[in-house]
Amino acid sequence: MNQAPLLRSFDPLKTPKPAIAQGLDAGLVRVYPRLEIEIGCGVGLHPIKRAALSQESLYVAIEHTRERYGKFERRLENLRAKDPGAIPNLIPIHANAISWISHHIEPASVDHYWIMYPNPYPKKKHLNQRWYAMPFTSHLVTTLKPGGRLTLVTNMKYYADEAEVAFTQQYGLKLEERKELTLGFDPRTHFEKKYLERGEVCFELSWSN
Ligand SMILES: C[S@@+](CC[C@H](N)C(=O)[O-])C[C@H]1O[C@@H](n2cnc3c(N)ncnc32)[C@H](O)[C@@H]1O
Question: Which residue's alpha carbon is at the smallest distance from atom 11 of ligand 1?
């Protein structure tokens, strides 16, 4: 039986400010009726595909490593060099998602969070670095709109099982879907491609608020 980790309190304003000052452009927020945020988007394949599909959403994609963010930014610059109007709803953010969301995202303002293949932190001593067990996550949930969604995808079954318990029992979200992805599924991210080609099963869970 999976145990949900204990919740600890979190004060977003005590979180260090993000290194970049850039927040959400109020003009863009008015233009797009929906807000989606991807945490840890790596080199940006999923945000580029998803933002192009969800044209009614402002899509914010956050990555904190310089190398992966740089590849994402170059990919987007190349697309926009060919077509200056390409995916105008996609906003890349080079920041730590915890700091950036804590300082720039209002309560009950997000329609959909995406966490695709988070670092699994398999050692028990690193439990509080898994997204479902971080103190920050109680704050993250308060930024979801009523009816908003959170989607998490992982190749680690323990991570999927523990996240299912935590988001449902501790954060009070409703599990809408849990599915398994296998070879043949059209990969949306670099990590998804790697795991599916290795023959691994990936787990996608989606909750609503
Ligand atoms: C295993 S990779 C997956 C990348 C991508 N989602 C994919 O599926 O190809 C996890 C990513 O999350 C990023 N990440 C982890 N913690 C983060 C944080 N607090 N803020 C922003 N990015 C973070 C890492 O830098 C890394 O690129």
Answer: 40
